[in-house]
Amino acid sequence: MSNAFFAQVDALTEAGQLRRLSGAFARFIGSVGDNSPQLMAACVLLSELEGRGHSCLMLSELNGDPAALLGWSGDEWRELRTAVGDWPQHEAAWRSLLAECRQVWPVGGEQANQPLVLDGDRLYLRRYWQDETHVAGAVRLRALGGVLAADADAETADIRRWLDILFPHPTRGGGPDWQKVACAVAMRGKLGIITGGPGTGKTYTVARLLALLFATAGERRSGLRVALAAPTGKAAARLKQSIDIALDELAEKVGSALPLRELAARMGAARTLHSLLGARPDTRAFQYHAGNQLDVDVLIVDEASMIHLEMMSALLAALPERATLILLGDKDQLASVEAGAVLGDLCHKAEAGDYLPETLSYVQASTGQQIPESYIGDGGPIAQQTVMLRESRRFSGPIGALALAVNAGDAARTIEVLRSGGDGKVVWTDLAQSADLLQLALTGYRGYLQLIKNLPEHAEDIVRLDILKSFESFRILCAVREGEWGVSGLNDAIEQRLQSAGLLKKTGEWYLGRPVMVTRNDYATGVFNGDIGLTLPDPLRPGALRVYFSEGETVRSVLATRLRNVETAFAMTVHKSQGSEFAHTAMVLPKDGGGMLARELIYTGITRARDYFTLLTPNGQVLLDAIGQRTQRASGLRELLGGV
User: Fold this and answer.
1) pLDDT tier at 386 (50, 70, 90 boundaries)?
2) How far apart are CA 146 and CA 319, in angstroms?
3) 227 Cβ partners below 8 Å, 6+ apart?
4) Residue 523 φ then ψ, to 5°
5) Torsion of CA 278, 284, 285, 286, to 10 degrees
């Protein structure tokens, strides 16, 4: 191995520019075959990019300059290249070099369980190549399969009749009712993808889709097995609650023609994807898989932007071919923390529509809606099963305008909305000192802490639910984990400020009022990564503490001492906030973005706010830089999907 190369890798690791895993992975690959510095460099970069959400390494990045992807300066990249020595000057040279390595399988060549896969101009870890290939094939089959049967005209007429009942009013703007279109499109195959921003009515739409599925199931209606799921417990609870409310309202409209309340009651609770698939402790394997599939007819998954590549592959493997999969999510939100941007790849052409003429004909026949010619294209099978909801019925006003400006990359409009204030709905604070933020935290968290102080000794769970709701009304979101303006620094500072104000008393790791976020799935206690709870008195054991978690309109609790993988959660990352909504959201940006912040993160933070949004920036340029930068994750999924 090249001592000079690994000396440079170690230096970058010590400087915090590389994970230790990346250097260790390259050394492992070098120990089982070719250990040329060129291959070692490719392995380091591949591992590092995987840790940043990319499913593969594009050879064009090796040929160019991946410093921006890594958040490096040009000097750091040049020093690494110099340590390698002879650096191939074009993609074809890299392709030829890698294809000759014993540890690399060039797709189409001889297989020997090589840990690396070279597919065209993309280098993968084998498992990510397998996951990406499987997802592409399974999604295409679902989009192509299960299209209306031989008596399609009769089925279409039945769909039209029920959709006119479920959507009795025309849209306000006179354009297509995309919610109605989404329901019809989802009935056309075994896959439906519904994307849209906050307030566009994704769960409102899917509730009507459920009613439509029940209505057109005929004799199978009573036995139709429907499952609801989401990546996190909070998102799952919100999905179930929203659908229950929508179906209850629909039941009043359709009356005895469709026993919606009875049918909805049989659906059961929404579950996390890990729980749905039967995750097992200390293993990547699930109880349900290709050889033991889920017993469902319809699976509805919310917050699909959070689903990473490996989880999507496992979900598709466990889902029977006969079942219909409905994915809901905002394609413009942050992608999953782990590798892959599956929903973004699937919805690549959602904005343009890209519908074939036969899709438009079907929509006209099944909904009476005329899709404008501007949405006609030559999209692939996924585009024909994807509908973007375009009208926000709830998320409007200054917060909506701010989100739209950021999503469009319009920095000038973003600043204009922030400075206008929107009658106090939007506030931009130049964070000169942490005291401003700590005062905001004191104001935002005072309410739930006062309720805890007044908590009766033998309170009913409804009182604890009120405390949880009070806490959920305000949250501080951070763009980064470390540093003065990151999660770790702010949680300590907020804790001290609340204690000095007499609102809480910290006596050890666990104390009354401590909010915690679960950081690892714990099947023994039934809590999952991302769940947020509050530490309250144990009503049955004087002096003991329990952590309470909300599940819709109910609560569940776990003895505090049984929770080992948690962290204090006065402040949390924007990533971890996905699937949640707060009446007042305060988002803190760091002094230096380092090129790693992008508009998707800013957009996601803004759209967590329901009524009020506060942006706190010690350096306004970080905001402008982030708005000008889009997250681009290396992936071969779009190409494998064949035009999407």
Assistant:
1) very high
2) 14
3) 267, 268, 271, 276, 294, 296, 298, 299, 300
4) -75, -25
5) 20
Q: Could you report the per-residue pLDDT of 543-575, keeping only the tens digit for each?
A: 888 888 887 677 888 888 888 888 998 998 988
**Cα-based distances in Å from 311 to 167, 307, 410, 604:** 34, 6, 34, 21
Q: Which two tokens stand for residue 514?
A: 């401590």
Closest among 519, 518, 522 to 279, alpha carbons compared: 522
Confidence of residue 540 (pLDDT cuts 50, 70, 90): confident
How far is the C-alpha of 520 from the C-alpha of 498, rounded, in Å? 27
Judged by phi (left if over 0) then psi (alpha if -120 to 50, else beta), residue 354 lies in left
> Distance between CA atoms of 24 and 13, rounded to whole angstroms?
11
Structure token digits, residue 505: 């008393």
Strand partners, 516: 533, 568
CA distances from 345 to 92, 123, 141, 336 (A): 26, 18, 16, 12
Region of poorest pLDDT, from 211-215, 257-261, 348-352, 381-385: 257-261
**Residue 630: exposure state from Cβ atoms within 10 A (0-12, 13-18, ≥19):** exposed
Element (DSSP H or E) covering residue 199: none
Pick from 544, 552, 543, 578: which is nearest to 468 by CA? 552
CB-based burial of residue 586 (10 Å sphere; 0-12 exposed, 13-18 middle, 19+ buried)? buried
Residues, the chain:
644
Percent pLDDT > 90 in the chain is 13
Nearest to 584 by CA among 494, 498, 427, 475: 475
DSSP string, 85-110: -S---SHHHHHHHHHT-TTEEETTS-
Q: How many CA atoms within 13 Å lie on the side-chain side of 553?
A: 5
Torsion of CA 521, 522, 525, 527, to 10 degrees: -10
Place of tokens 């033991």: 292
| CA distance linking residue 379 with residue 66, whole number of Å | 31
Which run of H or of E encompasses 572? strand 571-573
In the chain, how long is the greatest CA-to-CA distance? Answer: 77
**Token pair in block for residue 546:** 């329990």
The DSSP H or E segment spanning 69 is: helix 67-70
pLDDT at 173: 63
How far, in whole angstroms, is CA 477 from its chain's centroid?
16
Q: What is the pLDDT of residue 300?
A: 92
- What one-letter code names the amino acid at 185? V
R_g over Cα of the chain: 26
Q: What is the pLDDT of residue 396?
A: 67
| pLDDT tens string 488-518 | 888 988 998 899 888 888 888 888 889 998 8
Per-residue pLDDT of 613-644, as tens digits, reads: 988 888 878 888 888 878 777 788 888 887 55
Rounded distance, CA 456 to CA 539, Å?
10
For residue 158, the tally of other CB atoms under 10 A from its CB is: 17
DSSP annotation of 142: H
CB neighbour class for 461 (10 Å; exposed up to 12, middle 13-18, buried from 19): middle
| Beta carbons of 272 and 231 less than 8 angstroms apart | yes
pLDDT of 420 strictly over 90: no
Residues 6+ apart with CB under 8 A from 274: 521, 528
> Residues 49, 69: contact at Cβ < 8 Å?
yes
398 neighbors 417 (Cβ within 8 angstroms): yes
Residue 2, pLDDT score: 65
Report the chain's terminal Cα–Cα distance, integer Å: 42
Rounded to an integer, what distance in angstroms lies between the CA atom of residue 637 and that of residue 340?
9
